[in-house]
Amino acid sequence: MTTVSFLAIGRRARAWLLLGLLLLSTAPVAHAQTPTLPRRAPGLDPAPLQTRQLAADRPAVDTARVFSLQDLADLVFANHPMVKQAALLSADAQAQVLAARGGFDPKLGSGFDRKLFGGTDYYNKWANELKVPILPGGIDLKAGYDRMVGTYVNPEYRTPLDGLAGVGLSVPLGAGLLIDARRSTLRQARIMVTAAEADQVKQINEVWLQAVKDYWNWYYATQQANLVREGVALADTRFQATSRRALLGDQAPIDSVEARITVQDRQLQAEQLSVELLNARLLLSNHLWNKDAQPVELPAYAVPQRPTLVRVDTAQFGQLQSQAAVSHPTLIKLDAKIRQLGVEERYRREMLKPKLSVSGMLLSRGDFYRPEMPAYYDFGRNNYKLGVDFAFPLFLRQERGKLQQTRLKVQDATLEQQQSRRTIVNQVQAVYNTLLAYERQLALQEQTIANQRTLLQAELQKFELGESTIFLINARESKLIELRIKQESLRASYEKTRAELYYYAGTRTLGAQ
């Protein structure tokens, strides 16, 4: 009769009854034994405590879903607006060179002026000139045709009725012989093409560095979210199993409460990391554009590639240091600036000379092409115009002041270049030191994770023997998840630091070795 009543009660009541009998049997009486954790009874399903966190690493994903760093590079360098904007710097510098060449364009000028009043032709003036600058010596080749007739035309300018033709040269013998404003502007514009190209490289490098950082931030956010979601699934499975075992009386009911708290805590982390992953994906999408200059969103199914963790050896580092000290875009730009100021200084020294120019023109009647024209009206040494211009400021204060300003600018740019070179070389060394530190940290983290896996495995075995608790299992597993998240953070930081190393050396790497 008693047996029938005991079986008639519900499963939950039997579990609590067995728990009460167990507590009564372990009350502090004489010769009482030390209580132990409940063991798994024969015939009951084991709790699924084995965890994928014990695996050496996460399984490989479908390569068709991988959005690699090379894929990012292809899109950034082909379609990114700021990369296209950087290309405008070189085009603008070339346009400045073209504008400077305009100082040597031939110039054709013409002017007509006539006055007729009261039946009197006061004057009829028609002046034409073609000036062709000759680059090497600041010489101007001139050809002209003037027709100035009329009753009241100044005899000094009066010409035959057929006009007067002339061809000649204007040559600076003082200031402007070696270099003048036109040649100075052209040479400086050509030098600034180099500076613009250096600016272009630097701007593209900055765009790529930011893209790489956003890419590895996306990788870290993805791995972090995956690990925590895996932890949620494991904790929930363990909670379900623990609840069933508690109902069967094989495990303390309080263990299910502990397991449920772990599930809720990891779910909270997973919700927060989902938002962080979404934001990281949006930040990376800032760099994605198609060929039609339309923004592109990163697909939700896309996953990042695994870090290559390619080591930069001493020889490669030495090459990067040498490259940084010689051909860094900042140094190239400063070198161009110094050379530009050197041209300006030479021009300012030239302006200290007296202004002396000589011009001469051979003359002929306007119809010199006619064979019947007398020979004494043709081009010859007896038909010419000659002029000499001379000017010299007595104190040269303006010229000396501008020359002094230019020399100070040269000194300033030279000192800036020296400091920049030292700063760049030290930045490269500092980033390399950080890279080496990450290598050591990654090696230590790998060992720590291996030890934590061993600890978790041992804890699982102890639990199967009834010598551990769900609390300890969850604690060990949570610590392992935390260590693996830290490992992914180190991997992402290593890749970002390697990109910074190339950036500070004045170049860029696609990450695909």
UniProtKB/TrEMBL annotation:
The keyword Transmembrane applies. It is found in: Cell outer membrane. Gene3D superfamilies: Outer membrane efflux proteins (OEP). Residues 1-32 form the signal peptide. Its main location: membrane. It holds the Pfam family OEP. Keywords: Cell outer membrane, Membrane, Signal, Transmembrane, Transmembrane beta strand, Transport. InterPro entries: OMP_efflux, TolC-like. It comes from the Bacteria. PANTHER family: OUTER MEMBRANE PROTEIN TOLC (PTHR30026). Belongs to the outer membrane factor (OMF) (TC 1.B.17) family. This is TolC family protein. It comes from Hymenobacter cellulosivorans.
